Each structure stands twice: as structure tokens, then as C-alpha cells.
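Office hours follow-up: a student asked to see two folded examples consecutively, so here they are.
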Amino acid sequence: MPYAEKAVKAKTPLKGQPRKQKEPIKLESFSDLIKYIKNFFFEIKKRDIVFPLINGIILCLLMFITLYPVINTVAISFNDGIDALRGNIGLWPRMFSTKAYSDLLTDPLIYSAFFISVSRTVITTILNLLTTSMLAYALSRKEYVLRKFITTAMVLTMYVNAGLIPNYLLITDTLNLDKSFWVYIIPTMFSCFNMIVIRTYINGLPEALSESARIDGAGDFRIFWRIIFPLCMPVLATVALFVAVGSWNQWFDTQLYNGGKKNLHTLQYLLKMKLATSMNQANKANATADAMAQAANTTPITMRCAITVVSALPILLVYPFLQRYFVTGMVLGGVKG
């Protein structure tokens, strides 16, 4: 078929010929406007963009529903305490005030508590990833004879727990970890659930990688560090986020084992005590004028919101760096095998 006939059949201009420009829309009467609107919606239906349009609207509504409590909490934290008691604060403070943050951040203990929490989170995350991933690799090897027995024994610990009192006696009397920083690290160095997730991910890797490295003379330790560990970065980032968030939000172990040592208080425990103090001041304000003057610009509502913002901000800053691994690690490590 000649080139000209092909161009006519495809309804495209020949080389060097100008493209036909669309005629401008003429709306001379109301009927022309109605006709244009009908044609517009017909074209939308023809191009099948109705579903993306509705889907986008629904996603925008869900985003607003999700973000509104967060923005409202930030707005209340920057609002005046007495005015916040009136309620009806939306997305912006009605009477701007930083009193809640100044009362919260002027305490010198909060900076040492922040250092303890950061140190605890970083060390716990690193050690948990190392111990859990190494055990997951060992239990993923089919040539390991005791892998089924050890896996069953560890899974049982997820369903059977001795309870709070035996755990307290183990840490304080047997291990003597109370009143020390290591009470935050050693009991949280391993997680059975995270081990199962990492082991499932390793089972999905090609076996030929380990076999070829073993043929070249590499041992299990070298295979793990040089091949398996780098390939497990998506699931390790997911597990790291789980461990870091759990470690950062912990405060109950501080109350149990280090409640009497202020230099070992974590940020979450200190913020909890701050909230309790603020609530006590609010209760006393009903009885005395001095207490009312002391709590004039700070109330439990604003203090609670400020504490929420301060405690959640570090995790919110870390999450974007791990988010690209998060979905991949959850999908690939969440299939049972």
C-alpha cells in the first residue's frame, strides 16, 4: 500500500502538511450550551475517566478524614488553655499560644529523657535486627535438623505467656537488670513474630544464590552477610519500623524497673508524668485561686495534645525514609510458607 493511502487510512496528515486545527466552540444560544455539556459528559464516559474521577474524590475524602484528627491535635496544642475548654477548635488555633510547649520543653529532665529514648530505640532496633535475622536465616535452612522443633517452641511463646509477676521476678531477681539501662535492651533483643516474617522472606529468595556461593567456598556466615542480608533490606526496613515504634512508645517498663531513677526515665514516661501533674493542677484549680492562676494558660487538654505532638514527631520524621521499603516488605514477608 502506498504511503499516501496509509496516511489517509490512519487519518493522519502527510509529512510536511499542517495538522487540521480544531474549530473554536460557538455558544450562540442556551441550546448550544446544553448540547456542549451533553457532548462533554459523553466524551468523559467514552474515555472512561468516570471511575478515576470518583475514585479520586473518595480518596480525597479519606485523606481529609485521616488528617483532620492530626491537624486538630496540633491546633489545640497551640491554642490557649482556657479557651480550649470551650471546644469547637477546627484546623487552626482560635487563640494562639505556645504556653503548653514552653511548660513542656523548659523542664531540664526532658532532654535527658529524650536522649535515653533515642539511645534505647536505636540500640534495640539494631540488636533486634541482627539477632532476629540471623536466627531467621538459620531456621530457613532445610539442612538444619532442629529447625522445626525450635520454630514450634518459639511460636508457642507467642500464645503462652507466664505473666507480669514471673517476668518481673526474672528481670529483677534472676537477671538483676532493674535500675539499669540494659533493662530496656536485653528483654527486647528478639521478637518471634519478626523472625517468622524475615524467615518467610528468606524462603522466597532463590536457592541458587546460596548454592553457588557454597560451591565457591563460602560458609553460612559469609553467605548471610554478603548475599542474604543485603537482599533482605525491604523486610528488614519494615521490621525496623515495627521495633523502633514499639521501643519509642514504651513507658511501662520504666515505671516498673526504673521509676525511682530520674536519669533513666524515658521520654514517654516523663510525658506521662507531666500529663498527670497537669491534671492534678487542674483539679486543685477548682479549690484555690493560686492554683488557678498557675494553670491559667495550660490545661490538660492542651498539654495532652502537646505531648502527643512531641512524642509522635520523631517517628513521623523517620517514617518517610522507610516508607519505600514498607509496602514491599509487608507483601513479600507476609506470605506464609
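And the second, which I mentioned at the end of office hours:
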Amino acid sequence: MSKSKKGKGSTKIEKKDKNLSQGSSKHKDPQADLELQEDMENADRESARFVEPGDIVPDKNPETLSKKQYEKELRRLQIELVKLQEWVKFKGLKVVVIFEGRDAAGKGGVIKRITQCLNPRNTRVVALGVPTEREKTQWYFQRYVPHLPAAGEIVLFDRSWYNRAGVERVMGFCTDEEYWEFMRACPEFERMLVRSGIILIKYWFSVSDSEQEKRFLARIDDRTKRWKLSPMDVEARSRWVDYSKAKDVMMKYTDIKQAPWYVVNADVKTKARLNCIAHLLKQIPYEDLTPDRIELPPRQSDEGYVRPPYEDQTFVPEVY
């Protein structure tokens, strides 16, 4: 199992965890407080952890698919995704897929492959930035609600309301009361979404310590990817264990029957993408509504049409 040194902020966070049960009982459930406190303490024991595949199987020489095999299977799955999209549109289904996980775990890569061949009018990605000062005063879930799907739509959340259970908790961006309220409200919020007819699917992308470091270094070396590595990502890596503890508790309280968590072993990107897409396709029964092949009609005759002079048009310079 991978081991990482705790960052300087770990002590502060551990103290905050130990004091969770203290404070105003007006805002807390004593029994839930006790259970959550026990979970946080148990998270220190490796045997009690909700282990991630990437944590416990950092294979030094993982068996990879050949490029030809990967592209062939990806093509097949993307054709099935198009069929699924047509079915969702035809039946007026509402689908929400949440992608969570550690930084550089490959969430963006699988989202890109899912949407690559789909209609952006029916399938869209939601990746919200830091909340504004106004949004900070709203009901926590309020900023996410406007992005929920209407009939015939699929919405992919590249990170979601689970920011509160992860980065906000670990980095101290929310109070204990706000965190506890999220833990109580989130399962009910998601059950409400499901009762309203939304199909809610949640994925957690797991990556090992060594693989994450490898991907971080690759981003540093690639100028086109450096924007993906923020100071927050660097700080988060120094708090690896704190994030593990936060994730364990999140899984404990939000892995509900109506919307369970599905963990994707993401140490090998190609396999993670194929496994996730294949699993997603199995979550929604669908039929093939691929339109029949059409024949293009003959082009209209240009008889009587005079094209404007070439010199009157502004063209993009042909540099290449």
C-alpha cells in the first residue's frame, strides 16, 4: 500500500476532526456525530479503510492494451453511446453522471471520450469554478440545480457537490456545521433527484500515489497541460492521507442504494476509460434507434447565380 508523508496542515485537520463532536448541539445529530467520529478514528487503521484499488494495487508493470485494441474497443463503445443518447432523447430520460476522484485520476479523459461523438445539445459537461461571494450565501446545492438535465438530456459533472466532502473539508473552506449539514442533506438531496425521475450515476476514480506523481510530473513538463496543475492540486498531494480519510467518510454516508458509488481503478488510463464507459452503458437499458441510411439529393443547379468577385472577400491568410 502506498504511503505518503502528511503535510504541515495535517495536524490542524486532525485536531479539527477530533473536535467534530464538540460545539452547538443545535446544529448536530449526537448519534450521527458519534458514528462519524468513530469513522474518522478508524480511518487511521488501514484494515478499516474503504480501500481504493489504486491505493492497494500500484502495479509496477500493469498490463496495457495495445493502441489498436484500445482504439477498436473505444470506437465500438462510442457507437453504443450514440445509441444510448438517441434512446435517452426518444424516451425523455434525465441522466446525471458524477465524476469524482483524486487530482490527475483521469476524470477529464473519460469525459472527453464519452462526449467525443455525442450531440452537445443533448449531452453537456458541467465543471463549475470557485463559487462567487453571492453563491457562498446560497443553499449549498443551489448552484448545481440549474445545471440538472431536462427530458432527453445527459449531464456529466466534472466534480460536483461532493467538493464539500473533499477539498472543502480538507482545506478548511467550510465550517464543521456546514460539513455536517452536507453529510445529512446529501443523501436526501440525491434521493429527491432520483424520485423526480433523474437517473443518478456516481463514479470515483482511484489512482495510486506513484501514478499520480507520474502524471503531475508529466503535466509540469508539458506546456499545454500545466494549467491542469494548480497550487491547490500541489497542496492536496501533500495531504494525501487527509483526503483518504475524507473520502472514507464520504463513501460511508453517501453510498446509498438509490445512488451507489462505483469505483474505477484508474492507474491505467486506457483501461479505466473503457471500463467506465462499458459500465455506464449497462446502467441504462436502451435500444438501437440509429437512423436509417439516407441518400443525398442532387445539388441545386447554379444556373443564373453569379459569385461575388474574389477580391471583395476577406480570406484567412494561408500560412500553411
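Two things to take away from it. The beta strands are 94-101, 123-126, 153-158, 198-206, 261-265. The longest helix spans residues 67-91.
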